[in-house]
Amino acid sequence: MRAGFHHSISLLYLSLILLWIKTYAVYKTGFMLKGDDWFQEIVLFLNPVSFLMLILGISLFFRGSLRTAYILTAHFLLTGLLLANLLFFRFFSDYLTIPLLFQTSNMNDLGSSMHELIEYTDFLYFTDWAVLVLAVWFRPHRFSSYPSGQRMRRLYFLSAMGLTFLLFALAEWERPELFTRAFDRNLLVKNIGTYHYHLYDVFLQSRVSAQKAMANSGELAEIQHYLKSKQSENNEMFAAAKGKNVILISMESAQSFVINRKVNGEEITPFLNRFLKESFYFENFYHQTGQGKTSDSEFIIENSLYPLGRGAVFFTHAQNEYRAAPEILKEHGYFTASLHANGKSFWNREVMYQSLGYDRFYHQEDYRIAPGDTINWGLNDKDFFHQSAVHLKELPRPFYAKLITLTNHFPFTLPEKVRTMDEYDSRSATLNRYIPTVRYMDEALEQFIKELKQEGLYDKSIIILYGDHYGISENHNAAMSQLMGKDITPFESIQLQRVPLIIHVPGKEGEVMSQVSGQIDVRPTILHLLGIESNEPGFGQDVFSKGNSRMTVLRDGSFITEETVYTKETCYDKKTGKVTLPASCEKEKERAGRELDYSDQIIYGDLLRFLDGDSN
Ligand code: GP9
Ligand code: MN
Q1: 293 C-alpha to ligand 2 centroid (Å)
Q2: Binning pLDDT at 50, 70 and 90, where does residue 144 land?
């Protein structure tokens, strides 16, 4: 071995360099990470090394073929981890977290989406590994076991640990509070690298587990004190719909840019465009969802709390105490139901709905679904609404019902025969398909409203339609900019997080409302319209209240006020989209961070269990 040392190469170092290059390539071509200056660019380039050194270095404790086997296995697994992140990122523009790995009951439905996301070329990520295996197999003598020996080993680990320390210090120096306020995963990965990010995620997970045990009622008192300052005054809409039924409709992946927009001279949503003329239409309403997507939107809307920064609260904290809209309305004589033609365990709904106070969940098994009736993920929206109208007819009155659509879901597939609008023409097949599936949902909604009229429910109910979250992720910015006719800057990306909120109140004229609002404001709005006085803890405000202190905080810490938009550490003027001085966002930035922290504290500490009975 020793004799051929000069001609042989160390398998460890070879694997290290290959993984390093591969990781950096994924940063650049997959995650699209870019340093703001050359210094950050260097940090980005160097940040995978120390972790890879540590993991591969464990091989130094083995000898001979065991060492080789360890290196090859680690190389394979690390590549798998990188690829898993890449696939996840392709759709969600986000990184994997531990709680997501436990959401296995969602996996079946995700299958069709995954199929869309995996490309054959992805297997090429394993090429270097395959070459290494073959090389070791056929030319074992070409590889040395360098570095070996006690001293070398010590030096190796000291450098790896020193590098890690240096990296973390640089990250904290570049981005003070990076670790304490880790709302923005993109920023984390950019600074400490994808592998260390996973380690940090493990740390967060262990901290979360301890949080509930340590929580006490004092924490809730402090939060309630803060929330008091947010409470809005009653206005002329208070009790405008007293005693009416509430029909909430979650419009899958509906973003506001489709409203009143034409493609090839045709309106995408002709029905909604008419319907909002006889309703209150909130044009500056934002989704605030995180990794829990639809389930997060349900959570925010019904609890007036923020979703979690990691994972889906429907999975991680389904057993908590909540004060959700269904539970509160039940106390006021309402019958509460959720209707969604997907499996009952998707997003852990059947468990979570009990905590939210639902009387009845109409799920897949409550719908007649012939094989030809499914589109994409499940029963098509038209049949779903038609059968739901029959269910609604049977509910005790007054009722609160939430209907969740499904057809307009990624990958937005729609059979030719039901398509009434051409696909869009851009380089994003996803955006192209999205346009006709949104139209399909629009038609389904039109038919449903007609049925509500026929059943005599239309005038007896407030109807609230909202978009659950984005449908077109940032990965399609080039095509989006073609559609919108402008560059998609970070400022525009935030504006694209607007989803429609349409509230139809019987007897009220239509109006376009431009105040800034978000999903978190829906629970107080419903209670307000029904004339229910409450001081339930929550971070939202009734959407009809004006006032200039309105602020909508997104889950990654971005926020929108009437004057400013803050995202990716930059403050913009809301009217012009121009970058402004950081100082103009400073105060709200602190407030936004505090709200997210408080909300997390409520969920992680299960603080609502400390509410005394007379809070409502
Ligand atoms: C699944 C449906 C879609 O039941 O709500 O979930 P999503 O993937 O959009 O979160
Ligand atoms: Mn959804």
Answers
A1: 6
A2: confident
Please identify, by atom number, the ligand 1 atom nearest to the C-alpha of residue 469: 9
Distance 252 CA to ligand 2 centre (A): 5
Least Cα distance to 272 among 154, 157, 442 occurs for 442
Nearest CA to ligand 1 atom 5: 294
d(CA 407, CA 378): 7
Q: Residue 374: which of 339, 326, 342 has the closest Cα?
A: 342
Rg (CA), the chain: 26
Per-residue confidence at 1, pLDDT binned at 50, 70, 90? Answer: very low
Beta bridge partners of 248: 402, 464
Distance CA 361, CA 343 (A): 11
**Distance of CA 292 from the midpoint of ligand 1 (Å):** 9
Q: In the prediction, which pLDDT does 592 show? A: 96
Whole-angstrom distance, CA of residue 294 vs CA of residue 315? 12
User: pTM here?
Assistant: 0.85
pLDDT tens across 377-420, in order?
A: 899 999 999 999 999 999 999 999 999 999 999 999 999 999 99
- Superfamily for domain range 217-612: Alkaline Phosphatase, subunit A (3.40.720.10)
Q: Which of 92, 289, 342, 347 to mutate to test the pocket of ligand 1 (most atoms within 8 A of CB)?
A: 347
The pLDDT of residue 256 is 98
Q: How far is the CA of 211 from the centre of ligand 2 (A)?
A: 29
The two tokens of residue 21 are 């290059």
Residues 6 or more apart in contact with residue 234 via CB below 8 angstroms? 528
Q: At 107, is the pLDDT very low, low, confident or very high (cuts 50, 70, 90)?
A: low
Amino acid at 40: Q
Strands (E), 243-386: 245-251, 262-263, 266-267, 280-282, 285-286, 335-339, 360-362, 374-375, 378-379
Task: State the distance from the centre of ligand 1 to the C-alpha of 68, rounded, in angstroms.
Answer: 44
Given this model, what pLDDT does residue 249 score?
Answer: 98
- With a Cβ cut-off of 6 Å, ligand 1 is lined by 293-294, 340, 342, 346-347, 404, 406, 409
pLDDT band at 112 (very low <50, low <70, confident <90, very high): low
Show the 3-state SS of 42-109.
Answer: HHHHHCCHHHHHHHHHHHHHCCHHHHHHHHHHHHHHHHHHHHHHHHHHHHHCCCCCHHHHCCHHHHHH
Q: Which residue has the higher pLDDT, 494 or 147?
A: 494
Instruction: Please tell me which residue in 23, 68, 294, 525 is annotated as part of the active site.
Output: 294
* Residue nearest atom 9 in ligand 1 by C-alpha distance: 294
Contact criterion met (CB below 8 Å) for 467 and 256: yes
Percent of the chain exceeding pLDDT 90 equals 75
Q: Which atom of ligand 1 is nearest to the CA of 346?
A: 4
Active site residue 294: yes
Consecutive H or E run containing 10: strand 9-10
Instruction: Report the alpha-carbon distance of residue 421 to residue 430 in Å, rounded.
Output: 15
pLDDT (tens digit, 9 = 90+) per residue, 125-136? 999 999 999 999
Average pLDDT score over residue span 359-375: 95
**What are the residue ranges of helices labelled H in 93-184?**
98-101, 107-117, 127-138, 150-174
| Mutational pocket test of ligand 1: of 94, 255, 346, the residue with most ligand atoms within 8 Å of the beta carbon | 346
Q: Where in the chain is the domain with CATH 3.40.720.10?
A: 217-612
Nearest to 193 by CA among 215, 212, 166, 216: 166
Task: Supply the mean pLDDT for the chain.
Answer: 92
3-state secondary structure of 170: helix
